[in-house]
Amino acid sequence: MFHPRFFLDIIYNMPKSKLVDIQFCFPRFFGESKKAFVDALIRNIQSNKKIGYAGYSYKKYLREAISYRFNDDNIKDYKLLPTINKNKLIEVVQSVVHKCDKELPLLTPPLFVFVFPWFPQKNTAGLQGVTGFTPYSNTIHLFISPNKFSIRSLMETIAHEFNHAIFFHNHPFEQTLIDTIIFEGLAGNFEEEIINRGHSAPSIALTIKESKRVLHSLEPLLNSKDYNLYRDVFFGNKKYKKWTGYSIGYWIVKSFRKKYPTLSWKKIMEMSNKKILDKSTFI
């Protein structure tokens, strides 16, 4: 475990990274309204000619996306991000982004990272206080539990979302179910190779045998763009186990990586999802 003084010394002596631009969205807030809370979170986010409003063309769309993460009940639990945790987070983000860039170079640096508060629920305990989202190329959102988050989970999330941010340079934003499965499988394998600390929980929610069985049952629906189907397959319902889509994608890309171990991540990210599936040994 690092001593707090160690983190402070790193931050104070570390030059500003040209690869990553970090913006913390942790304002002082004492109200109880979700709308007022979300407005406070995004108040200082300005339009950027490269990425719009944190990855959205209009601020109203950013507001809708962020609002989805909260409810009126957990606003009262909001706290500012402690300075030591903020410094720790900066150090980890910069370190992981530099490591990712060596394997999969950013096409148009910097990577814009927006850090928001998050209130994990019981059904998200496996994420260990960190989750992420990539709305646009070169743009990621990190959602952090202010007082308790896992450094390993933070590292995995950054690498995972980094891969998504590169993916959007080469692929359309509107995706079918199978596109999304491969999309997540690429990120799941990339984070595992970059962080080198074992499997993440979503990647191994299903065994390879279970994943093959479910993928076979989904075959007539693989070209669907139905959001409700996506939500059920990835986040679970009575029919599908939570994180099913992540696991199927992980095992597909895992088999592809075993077949082509020397293929660079840059080349892989330029390939079509269909080609990756066809050239894998999964089916």
Task: Give a concise summary.
It is built from eleven helices and four strands. It is of the alpha/beta class and 283 residues long.
Describe the SSE topology.
Elements: H1 4-13, E1 20-24, H2 34-42, H3 59-67, H4 83-103, E2 111-117, E3 130-136, E4 139-144, H5 151-170, H6 177-195, H7 208-218, H8 227-235, H9 244-259, H10 265-270, H11 273-279
Parallel strand pairs: 1-2, 2-4
Antiparallel strand pairs: 3-4
Helix pairs in contact: 1-4, 2-3, 4-5, 5-6, 6-9, 6-11, 7-9
Please count the beta strands (DSSP E, at least 2 residues each).
4
| Total of domains | 2
How confident overall, as mean pLDDT?
A: 90
Strand content: 5-15%
Q: What is the molecular shape?
A: globular
Q: Any low-confidence stretches, pLDDT <50, length ≥5?
A: 1-15
Biggest sheet strand order reads 1-2-4-3
**Terminal Cα separation, in Å?**
43 Å
Number of helices: 11
The topology string of helices and strands comes to HEHHHEEEHHHHHHH
User: Portion of residues in helices?
Assistant: 40-55%
Overview features:
single chain, 283 residues, alpha/beta, 4-stranded mixed β-sheet, 11 helices, 4 strands, 48% helix
Notes on the structure:
The protein has 283 residues and is α/β, with parallel strands linked by helices. It folds into 2 domains: 167 residues, no CATH class; 103 residues, no CATH class. It has 11 helices and 4 strands, in the order αβαααβββααααααα. It has a 4-stranded mixed sheet, with helices on one face. Helix 1 packs across helix 4, helix 6 packs across helix 11 and helix 7 packs across helix 9. It starts with a helix and ends with a helix.
